[in-house]
Amino acid sequence: MRNGELYFKAGSEDPSSILAEIYEHLLPAYPKFYKMDQLSKLGWLATEILLGPEFRYKNYPADKVGIVLSNANASLDTDIRYYDTVKDIASPALFVYTLPNIVAGEISIRHRLKGENAFFIFDHFNAGFIQQYVSGLLNNDNLQACICGWVETLGKQLDAALFLVEKTPNAGAVGFTPAIMNQIYQ
Amino acid sequence: MEKLMSDLKKQIIEQLNLQDVKPEDIGDDQPLFVEGLGLDSIDALELIVLLQQHYKIKISNAEDGPKVFRSVRTMAEYITTHQPSNA
Known about the structure:
Chain A has 186 residues and is an alpha/beta fold. Chain A has 7 helices and 4 strands; from the N terminus they run H-H-E-H-H-H-E-H-E-E-H. Helix content of chain B is 51%, strand content 0%. Chain B is built from 4 helices and no strands. Chain B is globular, with a radius of gyration of 12 Å. The interface between A and B is small, with 9 and 13 residues.
C-alpha cells in the first residue's frame, strides 16, 4: 500500500520471493539488493515505495534527512541464519547484517542521506514514541525530513509501515499524530 | 585449468549473490575488485570462505589475498598449486 492505495500485490507467499517480486516490480537496478539480509531488503523496498521518484527533487540537504526505525525482534532473523552458518564456516556476508540498524545504513547509502538515524526495539509499533522522538528532531532543526516507522521480519513474517515526515508538509499531507500513524499501520 | 575457471565463475556468482551476473560476463583475467567486477571487502572474505568450503584451502598469509583474488585465473592457479591433494 502507498498512501492508502494498493501499490503492488505479490503472487508469492514465501518472504524472500515476495521481496524479490517487489524488487523486480520496482526495477531499481541496484545489484547490492541481492546481498542484503531480509530486514534490510524489507526496509529498503519500503523506503523505495515511500519516497518514490519525486523525493530526489525536493533537494533536502543530505544531513537534514534522518531515519528513525523500530521493530520487536531487532536482527534476530539474520542472527539465526548467521548462527546456522557458524556450525560450518561463519558467513562474513551475513555477519555484517547482525545489527538491526544496518537497514538504516542501506537506506542512507541508496538515497545519500547523512542525517541522524536511530533504531528502537519495542514489543509492538509504538507510534507515540516515534512521533515524539521525530518531532523533537524536526522542532530542534536537527532535521527537515525524516523517514520513520516500523520494519519487522522474523521467519515468514514481513511487516513494514514507513512514514515520511516533513517539517514543511506538502499540501494534502496527513497529520503526524500517533492516532493517524496507528490507523495507517493497521 | 579451463574447467576450474568455469567452475569458479559459477561458484563466485552463487557465493556472492551476484544475481545480475552470468558466468560468461566474468573474464578470465578481469579484475575482481574495484574497476572490474566491483567486489568489496566483505566479498573478499566470502571468497576466502569459498576456497575453504569448495577446495579445503586456507589462506594463512593475509598478504597473499590481493594476488590470489586478482582474477579468476589467479584464483585457479592458486587452487591448482595449493589443493591438499596436490601438496
